[in-house]
Write a structure and sequence with these properties.
Elements: E1 2-7, E2 10-14, E3 27-32, E4 35-41, H1 53-63
Antiparallel strand pairs: 1-2, 2-3, 3-4
């Protein structure tokens, strides 16, 4: 995920493959106490890349 924009404590994220894979998997988080808490997300339309396992784990932690 890459940050698209933010407004105050609300952050909007897009898949880094948005253009290449036409991924429709955006997410939004709210920053509370220095931690991002997932507000909403949509399913990806592609499989995760094996080279990005660390990022997948970080995304899973955000989803809590």
């Amino acid at each position: 995920m890459v940050k698209d924009k933010n407004r105050d404590e609300l952050y909007y994220w897009n898949c880094e493959n948005k253009v290449v894979n036409k991924c429709i998997g955006p997410a939004s988080t709210i920053l509370i106490g220095g931690r991002h808490n997932l507000r909403a997300d949509k399913e990806y339309n592609h499989s995760p890349e094996a080279s990005k396992v660390g990022l997948a784990r970080a995304n899973a932690m955000i989803k809590g």
